[in-house]
Specification:
Strand order of the largest sheet: 1-3-2-4-5-6-7
InterPro entries: AB_hydrolase_fold (IPR029058), TEII (IPR012223), Thioesterase (IPR001031)
Shape: globular
Helix content: 25-40%
GO molecular function: fatty acyl-[ACP] hydrolase activity
CATH superfamily: Alpha/Beta hydrolase fold, catalytic domain
Keywords: Fatty acid biosynthesis, Fatty acid metabolism, Hydrolase, Lipid biosynthesis, Lipid metabolism
Domain Thioesterase: 26-249
Strand content: 5-15%
Number of domains: 1
Organism: Furnarius figulus
Radius of gyration: 17 Å
Number of strands: 7
CATH class: Alpha Beta
Amino acid sequence: LVGWGFFSGMEKLIVCAHKRPNALCRLICFPWAGGGTSQLAQWSTLLSNSIEVLCVRLPGRETRLNEPFAKDMTSIVNEVTSVLLKELQEKPFAFFGHSFGSYLSFAVALHLKEKYGLEPVHLFSSGAHAPNSDAVLSIKRIPIHDAKDEEILAYIQKIGGTPAELLHNKEIRKHVALTFREDLRVLQTFSFEKADIDIPFSCDITCFNGSDDIPHDLEGWQELTSGDTSFYKLPGGHFYLLEHSNEIFLTKHITRCIENAGL
C-alpha cells in the first residue's frame, strides 16, 4: 500500500510523455503561472533519447483540478521533493523553468541542496528575474487580491501563452484567471535572501529570454553559482518558447549542455 501511495503521488505530480528508463539524465520542467504540462511535456519528442523529460503538474489544474491550489511556495517545494527524491538521488537531473516556473525550480533546487546535498547538473531559467534581484520584490507588490478577473485576463492575453480561442469560454476564462491568481499568490510567498548563505550552487546556469519581453534582471544569477552563467535572447515576447523554431533551439541547446555536463 505504501508503494501505491508513492505511485499515485508520482502519477498526480508528474507527466512523462515518453518513459526512458535508460536515459542518462532527467530534465524536470516547471510550468509558468496559470500553466499546465501540455507544452513542456512534449519536449521529450525533441530532446535526445539520453534525456527523460518529467513535467511538474501543480494542484488545481488538469487531472488535479479538484485539489485545492497550493497555499505557498514551501508546500510546492515539499511536494516536489518528497515525490521525486528517490528519482533525483538515483540519476543526474537538470531543471528548466519558465517565468513562475523558474522561481519554482530555483526554490526546489535550493531545498534539495540545503537538505540533501543534491544539485542539478544544469539549471535552465527562462523569462524570469534572478531570484536574488530587487526586481522580484516588485512582483510581491502586485495587488493580486484587488485585481479583477478581467484585468488578469487582459494581462494574460497581452503576454500570450494561452490560446485565444480558450478564452472565449466563460468557464475556462474564470478558471484561467483563478489559476493565474493562485500561482501569483504562491510566488508572493517566496523569499530568498542572498545574504543568508554562501554561493548555493556549483552547476552551470543558462538564462533564456524573449527579445521583445520586458527586460529581466539576470545579473544576480552569477552570484548564485560557482559554475558558468550564460545568457541567450531568442526572438519573440514572453512566450517566445512556444515558437517552434525557438523550441528547436532550446531543446538542442539543453541537450548539448546536459551531454557536456560529463555525466
